[in-house]
Amino acid sequence: MSSSKSLNILVTGSNGQVGRELRELSKDYSYNFFFTTRDNLDITNSEDIKHFIESNNINTIINCAAYTAVDKAEDDELNADLVNRKAVKKIAKISQELNIKLVHISTDYVFDGKNFKPYTEEFQTNPNSIYGKTKLDGEIEMIKINPLNSIIIRTSWVYSSFGNNFVKTMLRLGKEKQELGVIFDQVGTPTYAKDLARAILDILPNISNTKVEIYNYSNEGVLSWYDFAKEIMKMAKIKCTINPIETFQYPTPASRPHYSILNKSKIKNKFNISIPFWKDSLDECLRALGERK
Ligand SMILES: NC(=O)c1ccc[n+]([C@@H]2O[C@H](COP(=O)([O-])OP(=O)(O)OC[C@H]3O[C@@H](n4cnc5c(N)ncnc54)[C@H](OP(=O)(O)O)[C@@H]3O)[C@@H](O)[C@H]2O)c1
User: Fold this and answer.
1) Least CB-packed of 15, 28, 129, 213 within 10 Å?
2) Which residue among the candidates 29, 119, 131, 259 is catalytic per the annotation?
3) Which of 37, 38, 34 is nearest to 56 (CA)?
């Protein structure tokens, strides 16, 4: 928690998972928040963004808005590119011109998932989906424009008590079905959006750099989707058998990385933050959902 009063923060896409968690946490921080949604501030409209920033004296932006429909993006590159690259380019340009600190969120999907040890921020990117490509292109635009004191946070497997996500899908299906097949040959680490939101708010006053820095953030630990589903059922006391299946048995339009583990040393060392273990965060989220007493 910080006592900084001078931060006027624009949060875009605040109806999304990370945006909603930021909204919930905002009361614990003495920053001035301006939460916007697609309805009242479309990030593809740079005129509106600029006007909003100037009218409200914004000096910090947390960009939670994104085109996140991974499978849909395979047939909708134009729109994914519009939000994930072009809009980020415009926001970065405005941030650079008006000296605004920009925190932008990106994804593990910038990697191809063929690695065998946790991805560092410097590791060669090679997205294998349109979504991943457009998110990487957004990163590249932002790095090129280089707004001062700005960062990109790459995260993975985001879930929350808000919005649609794997945890909520498993809870629903687990109650409807007696058995479910869940992929065991894709490993990564979930990120409880509330933990990510808190990390962003905690580090915000200490972000100071002349070149855009990339940081990885997820919860701690390593697991497959199968392990995740098993633990959700166990914690929520749902009697549904989870069977391990391979990726080919659950075909999707976009291909997902088999290995999505992010090395988080950089953000932990730089900002001296500790990151919760995935099971502890899952427990917290299930309690927030009323699925665990
Ligand atoms: N979800 C994941 O598993 C995951 C994994 C890795 C990285 N990330 C990244 O983390 C960030 C936050 O993700 P999230 O899970 O919170 O996403 P989310 O729940 O899908 O939220 C994204 C929000 O952006 C809004 N949005 C879309 N286009 C917009 C536009 N043109 N102008 C303004 N708002 C717009 C959406 O509004 P509508 O609801 O109206 O569409 C939605 O509220 C994103 O950058 C995402 O790429 C997510």
Assistant:
1) 28
2) 131
3) 34
Report the relative pairing of strands 158-159 and 191-192 from DSSP bridges. parallel
In the annotation, is 131 catalytic?
Answer: yes
Ligand 1 touching residue 58 (CB < 6 A): no
Asked if 181 and 249 touch (Cβ cutoff 8 Å), the reply is yes
Model confidence at 4: pLDDT above 50 = no
**Which residue type occupies 254?**
A
Max Cα–Cα distance, the chain, nearest Å: 56
Tokens 């809870």, residue located: 171
- The pTM (predicted TM-score) of the whole model is 0.97
Reply yes or no on domain 8-165+189-221+259-276 having CATH 3.30.750.24. no
* pLDDT value of residue 1: 43
Q: Please state, in angstroms and rounded to a whole number, the distance separating the CA atoms of residues 24 and 113.
A: 33
Regarding the beta carbon of 18 and ligand 1, being less than 6 Å apart is answered yes
| Sequence spans of domains, the chain | 8-165+189-221+259-276
CA distance 258 to 141: 27
